[in-house]
Specification:
single chain; 13 helices; mainly alpha
Length: 267
């Protein structure tokens, strides 16, 4: 994701109106078509090493969560090549070592499970991984490591400890997925240009919204522009909540997780 997205997610505007709806339980179920969401169902299928879907489940986990873990390793002081090796090998070992057996849907949040497992891996497995890498063993999973390091170099608040950086990057990953889903929905409806015009207003404070300017840009009445912004923000809240729901053990955990993520974005 580009640096512009980091700038998008950071202002207090988006947190303020997301907070308004953290207890909204009217969001519709997340649609599956066109997306590869990371859910507890994927985690559970990945626990079974004999499952024909295990490889696809692992790839889904890796694609979604590799960068928060990479940033965590870098903030701990690992050099870029070592952080890359650690992240690649960790995801490969999730199935090999049956670590996912601890990812019980009835216990905790996947965010916490993944970081705890990664910490154990760093403490217990890194020496052997490093020796294997020096011996020329090819990485198990492909990662865009050049992109990882370029993203890390643009991270704000370089003084953040590794744990807090991980939490922030996790929250940003969910926001990125939310934006991707919204963009796809607008594109499917033939409204890609409208989305590009409106997305910037997701971060604007309500008092700062210039509806006359929005209306002029979109060729709408001012009233229609107000409705368009309101609908986009409402849909953003719905989709964000759905994405968060896929990472917790039970429905009653969603609001607490939302509050935690919004606090992480304030870092």
């Amino acid at each position: 994701m580009s640096k512009n997205w980091l700038e998008f997610a950071s202002p207090p505007g988006i947190r303020s109106w997301l907070t308004v709806s953290t207890t909204d339980t009217t969001a519709s179920p997340a649609p599956d078509a066109g997306f590869v969401p990371t859910r507890w169902t994927v985690v559970l299928s990945a626990r079974d090493a004999e499952s024909p879907d295990a490889g696809a489940a692992l790839e889904s986990l890796c694609r979604t969560y590799w960068y928060p873990l990479y940033a965590y390793a870098r903030r701990l002081g690992q050099a870029p090549p070592d952080a890359q090796d650690l992240t690649q090998e960790f995801f490969a070992r999730l199935l090999e070592k049956h670590w996912l057996a601890g990812a019980d849907r009835e216990k905790g949040r996947f965010r916490s499970f993944l970081l705890t497992a990664f910490k154990r891996f760093l403490a217990n497995e890194w020496d052997r991984v490093h020796r294997q890498k020096r011996g020329g063993q090819a990485p198990h999973l492909p990662l865009d490591t050049a992109l990882a390091e370029s993203r890390y170099q643009t991270e704000p608040a370089m003084e953040l400890p590794a744990d807090r950086l991980y939490e922030r990057r996790w929250a940003l990953t969910l926001l990125e997925r939310t934006m991707a889903r919204l963009r796809a929905e607008f594109e499917s409806a033939g409204k890609a240009a409208e989305f590009e015009q409106l997305k910037g207003f997701l971060t604007a404070d309500r008092a700062a919204l210039a509806y006359a300017d929005i209306a002029r840009e979109l060729g709408l009445s001012e009233g229609a522009a107000r409705v368009a912004v309101h609908r986009l923000r409402r849909r953003f809240r719905e989709v964000f909540r759905e994405e968060v729901t896929h990472t917790v053990a039970a429905a009653e955990d969603v609001d607490e997780e939302l509050r935690h993520l919004l606090a992480a974005l304030a870092e």
